[in-house]
Amino acid sequence: MHVVKVELGARSYDILIGAKLDKLGEEMSRLRVGTKVAVVTTPTVNKLYGKTVLTSLAAAGFTSMPVEIPDGEQHKTLDWANAIFTALLINTFDRRSPLVALGGGVIGDLTGFAASSYMRGVPFVQVPTTLLAMWTAAWAARPASIIP
Fold it and tell me: pTM score, two decimals?
């Protein structure tokens, strides 16, 4: 796994680059977050990678659940963000419970919004599954002051 350190003083973080979804739970256990995890994804991505991700999280001691959002840009709405909030509330997720965005750009955007809004912000882990989503995730992570 390749590590890129983003230096932001007290808000510094690492970006891990690699194709090791079976190591996600192990890597997340280093984050010191809550043990309940919501994996926001699409039905298509869930069929491809969901079992690997949920198994990895369980092996690391996390209790996880998938939250499926239909494929497509048209589902990047407040109604679908509300569906995420509802799933979190019903399952008693708290401020330490991370959201994992497993998928492309729509999932990354929607999950990032939900993570920043739920209980005034919860941990957010982005696991992009397309090249465009990887680029978008890297670009979105940059501080606004250096975006041209």
Answer: 0.85
